[in-house]
């Protein structure tokens, strides 16, 4: 909560995290306002039945319970930060009502404002600590070469210039340059690219990448505590801190309103006392204070937000806070990650070229006979394309090049076009690469017989989504760590004109900053490499069900499914909700404007003013509940419908198991 609300800024403690994980009926922030309402309602019943003393006691209980949720924070902000907020105004109004003998009205004010604060706090609950997932990518220890021997040291103690031995299956502990060896690196956690990168002496490598094949000796270019992954953490934390300072719409209105109302009430009391009966004008000043209290404003915005956020979750969109929901409605540009967001993140065989006399099935079977012995993602794609292929014998994998073996007495070799000559297929291989495919060449007894193209295919709904966003005036930019050729090929299929490729995580965050100069920008991604960009954007959207912990933590919104048609629907929902919020704010301000002169000139007393406020609150509540209306459009996929249905049955089903264990969304 911002200071304008009269509450403290949020901090993360173990007790708060534990409290967030409790069911709502054990959550103090919710139960105290609920009990305040129960006491107030009990007082009304007792008063109606003629039991005045018990009713007064019930009203006092409701007043004290409700006031306990906002009075301490309002006073702390006033004393320590010299900040005035709605909480302080409500505190003074309640005290004034009690002084005038209107305990029932004071209890009503305290209950209504406390429940408004509880609703908003519940809507703004968000996870903490997911950035630790980034640093888990760095191994605890690393092996270095020292005086000709291999020595194991703590990864945090690595220094630039040391020679690090990275065996197959190990993660690289810090940034460096390959000095000896060839291999394939799984860099998906760093660049988002699902297909491993071949490296050889002289190539730069990043902390967190997985060595999938041969051994490497890497010269460290960064210390173990100051590499690309620690940079990502710093970028995310910095962006989140900056974003946390942005005030919500209701708070921006309250900042000038609250001190203005206090000054007006003071002037009424002072000038009226000088010119007339002091008791009369002090009483009117207190009535003016209550009349100007933005009760409807305080409850209408969080209620609308809670209603809208709840309905969004029913169609697969998890929005982490009210401030996020308000910003969501004004986004005018979307930056989209490629791998796993626009694409399926499942490399598959998309083309087969063969020499004369060779069929596609034969080519795939020969390649699959070898590749079933490999754990390379390309191997998995080829094996899946020919599941019944027999296994080859004497299989040997040459790191960074390919794999070879024998099948039915013939030698089969499969590898990169940079290692194996494609022969007469060379021109067509180049064509496949221009289309964004990764190509492997197949040799049989030393002669090129086929080439197989593998690509991470575009999600089928992407062109429709891009077109729909364009119709709504929302621009789209692709940001990817993949090579420019593949990125341009996929962007052409998707209908995206603005393509920015070969970006590291920090480059994506910088690109978001540039796009943000022209208006609010959203970023949608699913990987650790997207975390800085997600945090830097006005709205960060994570493909939540399979997204990394770091992506989900850095983002403001998470999709429980993978159907990108959720994106335009989410924008429409947020815009409609923002319109309802604006309607409630205008109505609330009109009520204050109308009540002030009536209270100032004694037309309305305190009871009448409180009654008008309560009627206004009913009106804005009913209007705010309209934000909960939603229906499933025909275009939403059955996959996403199934995920959302499961999430209704089990609330923690909206994200991956690790994510939910930490209550990150």
Word description of this protein:
- With 665 residues, this protein is of the alpha+beta class.
- Among the domains are: 3-125 and 246-316 and 570-630, no CATH class; 139-225, Calcium-transporting ATPase, cytoplasmic transduction domain A; 348-455, Calcium-transporting ATPase, cytoplasmic domain N, CATH 3.40.1110.10.
- Helix content is 50%, strand content 16%.
- The protein is built from 26 helices and 22 strands.
- The strands form 4 sheets. The protein has a 7-stranded mixed β-sheet, with helices on both faces. Strands 2-1-3-9-4-7 form a 6-stranded antiparallel β-sheet, with no helix packed on it.
- The longest helix is centred in the last third of the chain and has 35 residues, at 566-600.
- It is elongated and about 110 Å long.
- The model is unreliable at 1-21, 123-132, 239-247 and 634-665 (pLDDT under 50).
What is the strand content?
A: 15-25%
Which word captures the global form?
A: elongated
Class by alpha and beta content: alpha+beta
- The percentage helix is 40-55%
Blueprint of the fold:
Layout: H1 14-21, H2 28-48, H3 52-67, H4 71-81, H5 86-99, H6 103-123, H7 132-135, E1 141-146, E2 149-154, E3 163-166, E4 176-180, E5 183-186, H8 188-191, E6 197-199, E7 204-205, E8 210-211, E9 216-220, H9 228-244, H10 249-275, H11 278-291, H12 295-314, E10 317-319, H13 322-328, E11 333-337, H14 338-342, E12 348-354, H15 360-371, H16 377-385, E13 393-398, E14 402-407, E15 410-415, H17 426-434, E16 438-444, E17 447-455, H18 462-471, E18 475-479, H19 484-494, E19 498-500, H20 505-516, E20 521-525, H21 531-536, E21 539-543, H22 549-554, E22 557-559, H23 566-600, H24 606-624, H25 638-649, H26 657-661
Parallel strand pairs: 11-18, 11-20, 18-19, 20-21, 21-22
Antiparallel strand pairs: 1-2, 1-3, 3-9, 4-7, 4-9, 5-6, 5-8, 10-22, 12-17, 13-14, 14-15, 15-16, 16-17
Helix pairs in contact: 2-3, 2-6, 3-6, 4-5, 5-6, 5-11, 6-12, 10-11, 11-23, 11-24, 12-23, 12-24, 15-16, 23-24
């Amino acid at each position: 909560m911002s200071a304008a609300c009269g509450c403290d800024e949020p901090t993360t403690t173990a007790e708060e995290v534990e409290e967030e994980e409790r069911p709502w009926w054990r959550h103090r922030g919710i139960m105290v306002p609920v009990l305040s309402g129960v006491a107030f309602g009990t007082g009304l019943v007792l008063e109606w039945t003629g039991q005045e003393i018990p009713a007064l006691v019930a009203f006092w209980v409701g007043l004290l319970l409700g006031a306990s949720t906002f009075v301490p924070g309002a006073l702390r902000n006033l004393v320590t930060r010299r900040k005035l907020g709605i909480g302080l105004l409500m505190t003074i109004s309640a005290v004034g009502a009690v002084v005038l003998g209107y305990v029932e009205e004071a209890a009503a004010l305290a209950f209504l404002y406390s429940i408004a604060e509880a609703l908003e706090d519940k809507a703004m609950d968000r996870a903490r600590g997911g950035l630790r997932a980034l640093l888990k990518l760095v191994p605890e220890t690393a092996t270095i070469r020292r005086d000709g021997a291999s020595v194991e040291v703590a990864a945090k103690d690595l220094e630039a210039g040391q020679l690090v031995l990275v065996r197959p299956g190990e993660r690289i502990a810090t940034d460096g340059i390959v000095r000896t060896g060839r291999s394939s690196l799984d860099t998906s956690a760093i660049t988002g690219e699902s297909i491993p990168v071949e490296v050889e002496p002289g190539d730069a490598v990043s902390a967190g990448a997985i060595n999938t094949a041969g051994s490497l000796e890497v010269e460290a270019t960064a210390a173990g505590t100051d590499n690309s992954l620690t940079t990502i953490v710093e970028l995310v934390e910095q962006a989140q801190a900056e974003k946390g300072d942005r005030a919500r719409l209701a708070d921006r209105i309250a900042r000038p309103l609250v001190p203005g109302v206090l000054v007006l009430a003071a002037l009424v009391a002072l000038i009226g006392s000088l010119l007339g009966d002091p008791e009369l004008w002090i009483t009117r000043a207190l009535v003016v204070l209550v009349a100007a209290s933005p009760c409807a404003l305080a409850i209408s915005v969080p209620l609308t937000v809670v209603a809208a956020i709840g309905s969004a979750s029913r169609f697969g969109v998890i929005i982490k806070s009210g401030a996020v929901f308000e910003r969501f409605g004004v986004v005018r540009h979307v930056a989209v990650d490629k791998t796993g967001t626009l694409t399926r993140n499942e490399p598959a065989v998309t083309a087969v070229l063969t020499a004369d006399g060779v069929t596609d099935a034969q080519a795939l079977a020969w390649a699959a006979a070898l590749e079933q012995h490999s754990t390379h993602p390309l191997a998995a794609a080829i094996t899946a394309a020919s599941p019944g292929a027999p296994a080859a014998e004497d299989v040997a994998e040459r790191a960074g090049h390919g794999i070879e073996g024998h099948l039915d007495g013939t030698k089969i070799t499969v590898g990169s076009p940079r290692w194996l000559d494609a022969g007469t297929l060379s021109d067509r291989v180049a064509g496949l690469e221009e289309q964004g495919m990764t190509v492997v060449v197949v040799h049989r007894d030393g002669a090129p017989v086929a080439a197989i193209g593998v690509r991470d295919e575009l999600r089928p709904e992407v062109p429709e989504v891009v077109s729909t966003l364009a119709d709504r005036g929302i621009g789209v930019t692709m940001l990817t760590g993949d090579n420019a050729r593949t990125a341009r090929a996929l962007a052409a299929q998707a209908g995206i004109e603005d393509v920015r490729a070969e970006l590291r995580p920090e480059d994506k965050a910088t690109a978001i900053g540039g796009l943000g100069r022209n208006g609010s920008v959203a970023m949608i991604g699913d990987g650790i490499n997207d975390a800085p960009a997600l945090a830097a954007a006005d709205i960060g959207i994570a493909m939540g069900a399979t997204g990394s912990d770091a992506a989900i933590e850095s983002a403001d919104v998470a999709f429980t499914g993978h159907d990108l048609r959720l994106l335009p629907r989410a924008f429409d929902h947020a815009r409609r909700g923002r319109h309802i919020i604006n309607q409630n704010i205008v109505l609330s301000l009109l009520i204050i404007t109308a009540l002030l002169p009536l209270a100032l000139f004694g037309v309305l007393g305190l009871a009448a003013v409180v009654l008008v406020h309560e009627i206004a609150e009913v009106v804005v509540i009913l209007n705010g509940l309209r934000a909960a209306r939603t229906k499933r459009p025909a275009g939403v996929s059955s996959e996403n419908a199934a995920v959302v249905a499961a999430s209704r049955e089990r609330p923690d089903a909206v994200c991956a198991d690790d994510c939910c264990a930490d209550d990150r969304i």
